[in-house]
Write a structure and sequence with these properties.
seven-stranded mixed β-sheet; 8 helices; Rossmann fold; alpha/beta; single chain
Length: 212
């Protein structure tokens, strides 16, 4: 299968993305509530979230397709396993080195994928039965979309000038439909960043169905 994806997302340092400031605390809160231990950060970028999760006591592995992101992550978090791979790759390759995970975390990744169904499909194959996918993506809903229209922000919001930028725009409904179709049971929805219904992002928790 040809990998139709961007190979370089512009990682130049180990500084955490701005979005980590409002997404990261919710991810940590949810992982603790779910009593998870082993976590895969799928699309870990420069490894900043991997490092934070490890510092807080989680057993963490990272996976990133961008070679520069992988290089930075490995330099900054040498004790953590960081794999250069993406959801277009065979998850069996990862599982030759790892045991099934309690949770897969993927923050602000799925909106960049031409074939977004591959993300939950990959996650399902590396999770324990009953394990959790904690997934974030920019939020879209009626009130936020209306505000973007009223204030003339669509061109800025959907800029076509960002190499490797967003190519899918998700609502809670469309994201939950995708997860259900890929063998997950929806568990919870959370808006993060900014005020309710104008959220910057949403965090959806889904549980892998126990069937094989």
């Amino acid at each position: 299968m040809t990998q139709s994806t961007v190979s370089n997302y512009g990682w130049t340092s180990g500084i955490a993305p701005e979005s980590t400031g409002y997404i990261g605390p919710k991810v940590v809160e949810l992982l603790r509530q779910l009593r998870t231990s082993r976590v895969l950060d799928l699309g870990c970028g420069n490894g900043a979230l991997c490092g934070e999760l490890s510092r807080l006591g989680f057993v963490v592995a990272g996976m990133e397709v961008d070679p520069e992101g992988v290089r930075i992550a490995r330099e900054n978090y040498a004790s953590l396993p960081i794999y250069q791979a993406g959801v277009y790759d065979d998850p069996a390759s990862l599982m030759r080195s790892e045991q099934p995970f309690d949770a897969v975390v993927s923050t602000e990744v799925i909106e960049h994928l031409f074939a977004p169904h591959l993300l939950p499909r990959y996650a399902r194959q590396v999770l324990k039965p009953g394990g959790y996918l904690v997934l974030s993506t920019p939020y879209h809903g009626y009130i936020k979309n209306l505000a973007l229209s009223v204030f003339g922000q669509w061109d800025k919001h959907f800029t076509a000038l960002w190499y490797g930028g967003h190519i899918k725009f998700w609502s809670r409904h469309t994201l939950e439909r995708l997860l259900l179709a890929e063998g997950f049971e929806s568990v919870a929805f959370h808006g993060v960043g900014r005020m309710p219904y104008l959220w910057k992002s949403m965090v959806v928790v889904a549980r892998r169905s126990p069937s094989p």
